[in-house]
Amino acid sequence: RIMRPDDANIAGNVHGGTILKMIEEAGAIISTRHCNSQAGEPCVAALARVERTDFLSPMCIGEVANVSAEITYTSRHSVEVQVNVMSENILTGAKKLTNKATLWYVPLSLKNVNKVLEVPPIQYTRKEQEDEGKKRYEEQKLDRLETKQRNGDVIFPIINPEPHTVGYSQSSLIHLVGPSDCTLLGFVHGGVTMKLMDEVAGIVAARHCKTNIVTASVDAINFHEKIKKGCVITISGRMTFTSNKSMEIEVFVDADPFLDEPRERYRAVSAFFTYVSLSKEGKPLPVPQLLTETEDEKRRFEEGKGRYLQTKAKRQAQMQQAAQQ
Amino acid sequence: RIMRPDDANIAGNVHGGTILKMIEEAGAIISTRHCNSQAGEPCVAALARVERTDFLSPMCIGEVANVSAEITYTSRHSVEVQVNVMSENILTGAKKLTNKATLWYVPLSLKNVNKVLEVPPIQYTRKEQEDEGKKRYEEQKLDRLETKQRNGDVIFPIINPEPHTVGYSQSSLIHLVGPSDCTLLGFVHGGVTMKLMDEVAGIVAARHCKTNIVTASVDAINFHEKIKKGCVITISGRMTFTSNKSMEIEVFVDADPFLDEPRERYRAVSAFFTYVSLSKEGKPLPVPQLLTETEDEKRRFEEGKGRYLQTKAKRQAQMQQAAQQ
Amino acid sequence: RIMRPDDANIAGNVHGGTILKMIEEAGAIISTRHCNSQAGEPCVAALARVERTDFLSPMCIGEVANVSAEITYTSRHSVEVQVNVMSENILTGAKKLTNKATLWYVPLSLKNVNKVLEVPPIQYTRKEQEDEGKKRYEEQKLDRLETKQRNGDVIFPIINPEPHTVGYSQSSLIHLVGPSDCTLLGFVHGGVTMKLMDEVAGIVAARHCKTNIVTASVDAINFHEKIKKGCVITISGRMTFTSNKSMEIEVFVDADPFLDEPRERYRAVSAFFTYVSLSKEGKPLPVPQLLTETEDEKRRFEEGKGRYLQTKAKRQAQMQQAAQQ
Description:
The structure is a homotrimer of 325-residue chains.
Chain A: H1 16-35, E1 43-50, E2 53-54, E3 64-74, E4 79-88, E5 95-109, H2 127-147, H3 166-169, E6 171-176, H4 190-209, E7 212-218, E8 221-222, E9 232-242, E10 247-256, E11 266-278, E12 284-285, H5 295-324
Helix pairs in contact in A: 1-4
């Protein structure tokens, strides 16, 4: 579809959240279709996890987004989908790869939402494809267990914060979950959640550096807990780390099912977003360093640095590998 | 994309206007891409005309709309696009053809919006394709000249109208044209206009028969006049004819460019929409007959009857032809 | 237009904010059109004030909202518009008056946004209309001066609040102002701001009483300060008062023009919203009493009680007057 002013910031760059929402919708369609392809209980594929995603080049208003999705692996209860997004300038015909994303879906029964159904297996053209898929499946399973830990944190507001401290840019928004946000099962689409997360993370980044910012990457996101129609969700973001030219923002989503008496507010999702600041010519600008004050902030900064260096090393290894091939 | 509650009426049937908007967007993308495929002035394809469109089967919330578009003819200054919409129930895998539409686009220069550019010719696989396209091109050109006449009419509100008279159901809405309604040239997308027209026509039909109604067809629409960002548009609809099971509604779009001093309010588009009333099981219901009062209403009713009989005859001829093949 | 699922809460009642937004759009169109009706500088009418508005009956999904607007008074630099909203059930034909609102607009030059232009005078059919209009004009002018004071307050979050305290239900959201939120001048539509304010107030009310709530009335709102495209706005709400069957919520809008270096965050709007809790049959329910803890909270509760009793007295006086006529 054609990107509109509403999909973009005032510099004309399409929000990363809009792209994530399109990716998730494509993934949900292909995996729901696949999981219903054999006779059996009807089901809806629910997003369980999105792997780390890089935004390779910014998309602009007036360009057309081409989204293509393919099922690349199936385990007994989950489906791996690869989604590619190309931006196309229909005036010049130029096409650019914007995103390559990997998503994991789980089929939930339409009759009983707590029942996970079996996934019809796909055919692999080569045996290695199945083995590599299995390896990715095991890796993400491990990783999902790990992130279950980091759930207690809450963001408290700071009064009269100094510029470039954590408290200076931290932001949160609330949203009442309406019918258009939800799947047939009455739970929030993963893509809607990611769009709101990107919105908050983008405001944190813009408040910190006061320039035009764009999403550079999103770390793996696990959707441990479903969010029901009628909930109030609070999406909070705080900056955790800055390198010379990037900012890392941690985003939490807390759901408050206030209409269901016994249920308490709970952490539904959390993730790290990385942003860069762009000049008018689209070149990356240096960003102001984050000033850490408390012990927790210093610890989180070091952890963020670890993630940053690890990603950098991985990317260099990939580039060397690509150069050798 | 997946159909959401907002795309549909309270019975869960997707609005014809939502489908028309998707069709027009697909047509605008493919024809803008084609018109820029050769080196030359960059341009945007503007919708000039939509041929009569039948809604073959209703689409529902939760279904996926698959839209495919193909360029089928090019004249020197215009492009004919055929768009097919399939509705897919991803739970059962069932697919149905919802619409087949034919649209005509004209390339306007990005630098000078009043300049119509030349269209790169397409290759035809068979000579007959070109000849048939040329015939369609000549026919629509003739038809476009005719409709230029019917522009003076205005809809006046009636106080305390009797049930089932024209005044009883006539309706109008105003809309301020915002940035998301517009193309890169700053003019309203044809699809946005058609969606608003369907909204008004649907209100007229529902007021008349007070049941669940769906769009059955839209007569050819000519886009004679562009509508600029910042205009206020008034969309008015009145019922012109009823058969046993269908209602014909005439819709006008008037644009008021109140910020541009010299320009007066003008008629931008007009069209006939046909609606049917559906029972809970999706079967067509009889509709109350329209009560005509004035001479003009009686004349319009007869004209509507003419269109109705002509369409019916055409459809029967097509069915006979199909049966013979 | 027809009310859609997205316009309403999960019980099917249309959000008061959606109605306020339609009212403001109608007012902006009629007053911009009027102010441009004489030769001169083109201008856009900006909302300066909305008088107290009562929501007389709830509107539901599937109903049609009929909005009519009329200019009732003009001073040298401002226009008074009366807007009526009727809800129409198109299945039964039943119509109900939902709202009567009075709005004040000021024409700002399209070339120089800080220049207020002159308003062409309207013709009155009776001399008393002009005198009464002038009286309303003077009254609102006075009232606008008063509210300029109440601007310093900030809402701080409370950790682990007790149920039914002020801290328990207070809420805030941030919103990045995009192009679709803005007029041609690049400033946020008053109606967009009111819709966001109603969204926050509704979440505060729902958190407090955990039932289906609807907007009952909105106190006069003054738009002292414009909000520019690209700003981040924070909308915060806290409960100030509860009667047996109603809740009063104070809402603040703070704008942070973070891209414009010299400009600081400022209070753009504030207002009081009153909500009632409805049973499934649409009858008003008793609401839990607000527990006030601090001195400020107790003072605000007393002030809210004052407003409540004043409004009640005024309404009774009007009903007696109506009974005598």
